[in-house]
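Entry for the shared binder. Reason: the reviewer on the internal report wants the predicted structure included alongside the sequence.
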Amino acid sequence: MSSQQTRIALLGDVHANLPALDAVLSHAQTQGVEQIWNIGDFVGYGAFPNQVVKRMRKKEIVSIVGNYDLKVLNFPKKDKKWRQNKHPLKWLAFKWSYEQLSNKNRKYLRSLPEEKYLEVGDRGFLLVHGSPASNEEVLLPDTPEKRLVELSQLVQDTHGAGVAAVICGHSHQAFTRQVESSWFINTGSVGRPDDGDPRAAYAILDVLPNGLEVRHFRLEYDVEKAVDAIREHDLPEAFAQMLLQGRDLETILKG
């Protein structure tokens, strides 16, 4: 790797799946990454919320907070309301995640911004969870180009014309798309893919003197270890099936 090249691992949507996170971090290390950027959603559905936050915090990974993380942190205030209007399994996932987190890790998650602007050389990068407009906006491989142009303009209005790429997640659908002068890079989901492929997803970004290169990876990991931990904690079998099938909760519940 030349001295003018910077290699960055892009990951997110770990959702409390420590075996998947460890597989990604191990692979990234073999690829010679110099930095790791995380677009949030540390917790949710998996059996290792506290361990995942601690691992990321200890490694000093550059992180923002995800929409799911914020909901878990707000659980005590929303408990009564969510008990009435959310699916019981979703309510349980919020409750369990909140209770598992140490005070130190709750404090850490609360300290994280919802977006973060970073510079590599003379180029800027914006970390967001969903999109530059909302941490719950879903950006997909087939999101209309018109919408990405609108978001690109929003980024330029806010951060200037030097933003080379928006790094996002939330949709659990990995992609790289270039719109005008901006790139949109979705990391995919480390710990809770929902495209029918259970393997962990993440990306590597090479910032080169003359441009950007992005590679998306799907990695085998110890799914059984993640599933066994869910069952050992007496969490719903649907949470285990999400990992085994690589599907979201709604799909699993529909059978």
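Summary line for the report: The mean pLDDT is 96.
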